[in-house]
């Protein structure tokens, strides 16, 4: 009986968890799961053009130094501005909005076309505070953020009363292209999935 209990415990708490971990490693490393999920969260890639471009900031390293994902959002924003017909750009996020603005102005975007929403510290606040900022601004709105973040961000903006066309940048999708960076993308997506569930439970999306 003791041996049977030990064997059952070993199976439940050692063998099965290790088997699940092994399965997860195979799914993430050797299948297109991560890229597929990134594409699902992104919700497609409409043409990045409109009247108002809303760019959500992300990581921030130190004063006036943006993190990697914020940098790439800024780069894609610059490309969209140069290739589209945007009349107004809204940069969103506590601490990062000013740094993104400096980047865009340095690259030739007129400062008069840029507005900052520099108080929000979450996706929900991004949406609520930007909605107030754009209350009297006419035109079609295009929302730019990373692909894995777009599902939650777009719905948060819709809940706040701002109808947006999504323009996801291929963050996770690019990382998923190499097995060396695929786990980084998977962790972003896993974290985002938890946040989606939380936002849904709170009625924020």
What does this 3D model show about the protein?
This protein has 205 residues and is α/β, with parallel strands linked by helices. The chain has helices at residues 2-30, 33-42, 68-83, 96-106, 123-133, 147-159, 171-175, 182-202; strands spanning 52-56, 60-62, 65-66, 88-92, 114-117, 141-146, 164-169. It has a domain at 44-169: 3-Layer(aba) Sandwich (Rossmann fold). The chain is built from eight helices and seven strands; from the N terminus they run H-H-E-E-E-H-E-H-E-H-E-H-E-H-H. Strands 5-4-1-6-7 form a five-stranded parallel β-sheet, sandwiched between helices. Helix 5 packs across helix 6 (147-159) and helix 6 (147-159) runs parallel beside helix 8 (182-202). It starts with a helix and ends with a helix.
Number of helices: 8
Q: What is the share of helical residues?
A: 55-70%
pLDDT average, as an integer? 86
CATH architecture of the domain at 44-169: 3-Layer(aba) Sandwich
| The level-1 CATH class of the domain at 44-169 | Alpha Beta
- Straight-line distance between termini: 52 Å
Sketch the topology as an H/E string, one letter per element.
Answer: HHEEEHEHEHEHEHH
Structural class: alpha/beta
A few lines on this structure:
57% of the residues lie in helices and 15% in strands.
Pick out its properties.
205 residues; alpha/beta; Rossmann fold; 5-stranded parallel β-sheet; two-stranded antiparallel sheet
